[in-house]
Amino acid sequence: MKKDLTVTSKDSLQTTDSEYVKLVSLISDVWEKARGNAVLAVNTQLLEANWQTGRYIVEFEQQGNVKAEYGKQLLTNLSKDLTRLKGKGYSRSNLFNMRLFYVRFPKIQTLSGQLTWSHYLELLKCDDPLEMQFYMKECIKEGWRVRELKRQINSSLFQRLALSTDKEGVLALAKEGHRVMTASDIIRDPYVLEFTGLPQQKQYKETDLEKALKTNMEKFLLELGRGFAFIGRQYVIPIGSRRFKVDLVFYHAILKCYVLIDLKRAEIKHSDIGQMNLYLNYFKNEICQPDDNPPVGIVLGARKDELLMEYALQGIDNQLFAARYQLYLPNREELQSQLDKLLDNSQK
What we know:
The chain is α/β, with parallel strands linked by helices. Helix content is 53%, strand content 16%.
């Protein structure tokens, strides 16, 4: 969004001459664009230099130039000599990452100038190439900053999404990123809400969780996924002489529908499903516009009984889901192990 221009002359008199204001705006835009292009060009050159450095190291090794004890000291020796010649930036760990950068991305055409070297350093921490491809696609598509990318990797987003699909779905996830096409595509189980700062074992109220999510709305939206816009908290639903309240209401720009979230600090009960179904029917009849799609309801609890939820959700026409949340980061190794089993079993 452009700011309104108020131009002041040497004599400290403001001028409202539209042509002059337009001139100032045009020149300002030229330099803003130039600075952006300069940053992009510098970043592209830096990525290429890091990639070429890694390539030279790998090719030197593959040509048999690395032998015995000398081979073990290659990166150390390079670090000392390059630091002496060029200054800082050539530590052994940096050279190791540059080498790994080339090994993981052997084709320079696959690199994206939209990502910085700091982004790639986080991506290189992914051992699984499918996982790395997924985060790279999502990072470019969503414009994640490094901090956001780091959180998504730490919260095992790829594993959580992948475990809800089959082998073909996992491969598509890695190749195309997470595509939101239907209401079920926005469901994650579990959601990871570690940023709330609430203790895992101690007592807290649902309102505490609700307030913590509101306070950390930017992070919560990142966890919810792409396309969510916050509408309100404790949204009032008047029915007859009674007033009900939905904990959180969002609008999903991609699915073009309202998304209602009810928070439960303990296990989700069958009555919670019926209550959400009531909210959805109200929204469908009273709130949704003709061009809106039917609303989506998510009951989010600390635990859920799969069989109980299966029976509770049977026969409901509305798009209603029960999902778990965790107040701590999931066990990454356990999730990866489950994913590996899924991929192995699908090959048999």
